[in-house]
Design goal:
Two copies of one chain form a homodimer. Chain A is built from nine helices and nine strands. Chain A has 219 residues and is α/β, with parallel strands linked by helices. Chain A has two domains: 83 residues, Winged helix-like DNA-binding domain superfamily/Winged helix DNA-binding domain (Arc Repressor Mutant, subunit A), CATH 1.10.10; 113 residues, Rossmann fold. Chain A has a seven-stranded mixed beta sheet with strand order 5-6-4-3-7-8-9. The first copy, chain A, starts with 14 loop residues before the first helix and ends with a helix. At the A-B interface, helix 1, helix 5, strand 8 and helix 9 of A face helix 1, helix 5, strand 8 and helix 9 of B. The complex binds nicotinamide-adenine-dinucleotide (NAD) (2 copies). One nicotinamide-adenine-dinucleotide sits at the interface of chains A and B. Chain A binds a DNA duplex (30 and 30 nucleotides) through helix 3.
DNA sequence: GGTCGTTTGTGAAATCCTTCACATAACGTA
DNA sequence: TACGTTATGTGAAGGATTTCACAAACGACC
């Protein structure tokens, strides 16, 4: 069969491999726009800050997309990786929490461009519900479960205060959501089969603090 | 010697270990507020979503902070980890880019609470320069290098468009900054000794997309 | 003081991830 | 068709991180 799907046979793929694939697509798309036809693991590695062997290993987890002696077709490889990452489509996303972070995300074009369409926004604050953020109307979080089902929402972005996280997570999981991006500094509990990714900015700053403390003293 | 500093003898500490330490502090501080005196690796692991062995291993990279048979003193362990991460002080942070993400960050109290004090804000847009965001005045990015030196800025948070990143990074590194938190979807090049941490939200969403594509088909 | 139950700290084993190295496939040339 | 050059795909080696498992340390209790 031409179209390999070796990767859904329950193999374990590391997080860093996925991050690199995500990076490779971005590089390849840039090259597509520049009209480049072919590339090599060497070039991708150079541009992506890794090694050629790593690039080939990452790809080999999912199939073989190149031609020996020639390299890869930029367009085809991009297609393959997009298909691996599930990016050949639009994902329906709901945002919960139209606060500072929430509105920043809403007005960012990069998400829709990359296939993540924020189809609905929810908040609990009566002062915000009914109002507009950008071109979208903020809905009452009371209708969240119903809304998720009605709109076929697949991913929820959570930008609410920490204490509100767990109840909302329970609710959206009940409504069938299996992917959550969480900005609160607190890891919610979810059942098997649901993926949560946390964006914890304070942790990132603390990692910087550690790095600076390590080699700072001698400066 | 009572105060061990075994960790600055050039040992390699993994990123994930640092993230977990950061998590442990947060848990311990919560327990401190609740008035709990002691805890165990078991409890920390349970609460932090890891294993007891992992907790002990993480801590053992830096010293030994517990009492066998008894566990850890909540307060002392928090102190030790804060000291390891360099959190026993305030870090001087500058924000570059007072756009959507930038202003969200500025108005967030969590950073100062955890020792990251945003002492200055810079932007290139003449319409923004001179204006206020929260209680801070936006300064012209032309004065960034000078400002960094004058204010003793140690960490820079970059919330500017991708194409502006590299020049600003070069400039702030020249001014002596060794820690950068970058929101643009593009990894800047920096010399040895400078740490950059990237927050790439699109990559996080793409990782969710992958996870959903993996086990989605059977649903 | 001795014994018991507890929990740490840590070598050793197991697992996961990256790098190495090379057989293999593809193409151009003659 | 044979040969030379190139760059992939992948087992095997090497490193790093996580898990295991247990000796050592501590307090309680008698
Ligand atoms: N702003 C930042 O820079 C920043 C940085 C790091 C982390 N965070 C985290 O991100 C989250 C959001 O931060 P923010 O600064 O945007 O906060 P915010 O207070 O500006 O916004 C939170 C929004 O959530 C809404 N909300 C509260 N409870 C809700 C509920 N049960 N259902 C629906 N909506 C509800 C509020 O009405 C508000 O509009 C917080 O957990 C915060 O800790 C924010
Ligand atoms: N907003 C989001 O939700 C979001 C999500 C993911 C990534 N990002 C990334 O974060 C970065 C900022 O995004 P944003 O949405 O806040 O953009 P924005 O356009 O709202 O803000 C960018 C700000 O940077 C300023 N700026 C431009 N060039 C500058 C320079 N040379 N020096 C100083 N300031 C300069 C602009 O004047 C503007 O105020 C971008 O790289 C974007 O890709 C944003």
């Amino acid at each position: 069969m031409a179209f390999e799907r070796a990767f859904d046979v329950a193999k374990k793929i590391s997080d860093s491999a996925i991050h690199r694939l995500s990076l490779y697509v971005r590089i390849l798309e840039e090259w597509e726009r520049e009209g480049r036809d072919t590339t090599s693991s060497e070039e991708l590695a150079e541009r992506g800050g890794t090694t050629a062997a790593q690039v080939r290993k990452d790809l080999s987890l999912f199939g073989s997309f190149g031609k020996r002696g020639l390299g890869y077709s930029v367009g085809e490889l991009a297609d393959h990786i997009r298909s691996i990452l599930g990016l050949g489509r639009t994902w329906r996303v709901a945002l919960v929490g139209a606060g500072r972070i929430g509105t920043a995300l809403l007005e960012y074009r990069g998400f829709r461009e990359r296939g993540f369409d924020i189809v609905a926004v929810y908040d609990a604050d009566p002062a915000k519900v009914g109002g507009c953020v950008g071109e979208r109307t903020v809905r009452d979080v009371a209708g969240l479960e119903e809304g998720i089902r009605a709109e076929g929402v697949e991913i929820v972005v959570l930008a609410v205060p920490g204490e509100a996280v767990q109840p909302i997570v329970d609710l959206v999981v009940r409504a069938g959501v299996r992917g959550i991006l969480n900005f609160a500094p607190l890891k919610p509990r979810v059942p098997e089969g649901v993926t949560v990714r946390d964006v914890n900015l304070v942790m990132e700053l603390e990692a910087l603090s550690f790095a600076l403390s390590q080699d700072g003293p001698d400066a």
